[in-house]
Design a protein that fits this description.
Blueprint lengths: L20 E5 L8 E5 L16 E8 L5 E12 H12 L6 H18 L3 E6 L3 E6 L4 H13 L20 H15 L6 H5 L15 H8 L6 E8 L16 H6 L3 E11 L6 E3 H5 L11 H15 L4 H4 L6 E5 H7 L2 H8 L3 E3 L8 E8 L18 E9 L2 E2 L2 H9 L4 E4 L2 E4 L2 H8 L2 E5 L1 H10 L1 E4 L2 E7 L2 H10 L6
Parallel strand pairs: 7-11, 12-19
Antiparallel strand pairs: 1-2, 2-4, 3-4, 5-6, 7-8, 8-9, 8-10, 12-13, 13-14, 13-17, 15-16, 18-19
Helix pairs in contact: 1-2, 2-3, 2-4, 3-4, 13-14, 15-16
Length: about 475
């Protein structure tokens, strides 16, 4: 039985009682769905002066004789936009009904997806414009399933129309429909249609039959079929130099075309995120049959869309088997930064080796020069200058002089240090090459020690004293004796 709303049900401002259960009522057009707040005990809903009057929904209940029957109950029916606030409030309200709390968790998940830009345009039934939530990664799907698994029956108690005996909708499908409804609601602000045109901005349905092919290509690899990812292989490539670098600029020019790594194309099923295969297995027909007959076509469509975001992937489209992409050093640097973010927004993950370390840091260090007057003597008894150097550390442990030399000679974005791959920022390499920053007067060195900062090439950086200067800093910073 379809929910029945009073004529003024479109108004706003109603706050459902905290004891009410909640259930989502999907519609053919996602944004036209409603959230119904109802009393499982059958109590009438209190009237509201500034909101809609209660409507009626049909829910299933277990009668005293053990039979499941449908009953009409009063309900407060709210559009998705108006229901978000009370649902989010119910999520952490100990007095809220468990059904409302579960839909509150779904609402927070939907808002989190929207905040991450996980909204996809497409066409609903009848070629009508509609946004949907996506692409969803494995964590998103796991969260969706966890919310669905926690739902009490009141959260999906409205039976599917036209089914006898009454049949309740699957919670997981209902949560996914709710995520789509939120995604289809949020972009349609009052000014959106004026700023961007009616399609995908106006609340009224827009008929777009000419957009079918575009909608199919947009869906491929995003929320239908398969998606792709890149797994970086560093083992077969010379990623660090071992001798002879003079610190000049030639290495960067040579590195623009020098192979530095390989990106292996992987295919993931969107229906089952646990299904993953490499391109050669899919193209040879050895992949799991659950990928379906369109998997290769969908993978190529997803790769074509990803190439628009990051053009180097276009080289894979030129191959009969798009399995491995050889990366230059410049491209590898891009994947360490903005390119990875753009690909992630397009639903393409970049997987680095598990043992890859990103904890290489540089600190300016002030120390006494070996053999100087301040080396082991009172700090202000000397007129000797103090050394001011860059010190690079891995996981907080300073590199040795030899390791600093190896880092200074590196021309590639990833080096091998202490039996692990380490991401190298170009700025760190420059600091390792020009590690001596100069000499400081004792008074200037003390100022650096007490403030913990210094100015280097116009940039304020962290600075750390060692030796006699560190001991003096500690004495000055210590509280007076007896306090």
């Amino acid at each position: 039985m379809e929910p029945r709303e009073p004529a003024d049900a479109g108004g706003g401002g109603a706050a459902p009682p905290r004891s009410c259960a909640a259930v989502f009522l999907p519609a053919a057009l996602p944004r036209q769905g409603r959230v119904a707040f109802w009393s499982p005990e059958g109590h009438p809903l209190p009237p509201s002066d500034d909101g809609p009057a209660p409507g009626t929904i049909t829910v299933t209940r277990l009668d005293g004789d053990g039979e499941v029957r449908a009953h009409d109950v009063p309900a407060l029916l709210l559009p998705v936009a108006e229901a978000l606030e009370p649902l989010v409030a119910a999520r952490h309200d100990p007095a809220a009904h468990p059904a409302a709390a579960c839909w509150g968790a779904a609402a927070l998940h939907a808002l989190h997806l929207a905040a991450r830009g996980r909204l996809l345009p497409g066409l609903a039934a009848g070629d009508l414009d509609a946004w949907r939530a996506g692409p969803l990664d494995a964590d998103d799907i796991a969260h969706l399933r966890a919310v669905a698994a926690a739902m009490p029956f009141e959260a999906h108690a409205v039976p599917v129309p036209g089914r006898t005996p009454p049949h309740l909708p699957e919670p997981e499908a209902l949560v996914r429909a709710f995520l789509d409804a939120v995604a289809d609601t949020l972009p349609r602000t009052p000014a959106a249609a004026h700023a961007a045109g009616a399609p995908f901005a106006a609340t009224e349905p827009q008929h777009l039959p000419r957009a079918r092919a575009w909608a199919a290509e947009t869906a491929a690899g995003m929320d239908a079929g398969v998606r792709i990812s890149l797994r970086l292989d560093l083992t077969g490539w010379e990623l660090f130099d071992t001798g002879g670098a003079d610190g000049g600029g030639d290495g960067d020019e040579e590195g623009a075309g020098r192979a530095a790594a390989a990106a292996l194309l992987q295919i993931h099923s969107l229906a089952d995120p646990s299904l993953v295969t490499d391109a050669p297995r899919l193209w040879s027909g050895e992949a799991d049959e659950r990928f379906g007959p369109r998997a290769r076509i969908d993978a190529v469509l997803a790769l074509r869309r990803a190439a628009r975001v990051w053009p180097p992937l276009g080289r894979l489209l030129e191959r009969a088997l798009p399995d491995v992409l050889s990366l230059t050093e410049h491209e590898l640097y891009e994947l360490l930064g903005p390119a990875a973010a753009r690909l992630a927004a397009a639903g393409v993950a970049v997987h680095w080796p598990r043992d890859l370390a990103r904890s290489l840091t540089a600190t300016a260090v002030v120390r006494s020069a070996p053999g100087s007057a301040t080396d082991g003597t009172a700090f202000f008894d000397s007129t000797e200058l103090l050394r001011f150097d860059w010190q690079v550390a891995l996981d907080g442990d300073p590199l040795t002089t030899r390791e600093m030399d190896e880092l200074a000679e590196a021309h590639r974005p990833i080096v091998r240090l202490r039996d692990q791959w380490v991401v190298v920022d170009p700025d760190l390499v420059r600091k390792a090459r020009k590690r001596e920053l100069g000499l400081l007067e004792p008074v200037d060195a003390l100022a650096v020690a007490l403030t913990g900062a210094a100015e280097v090439d116009g940039e304020r950086v962290d600075a750390v004293p060692v030796g006699a200067l560190a001991r003096l800093r500690d004495r000055l910073a210590a509280p007076p004796a007896g306090t």
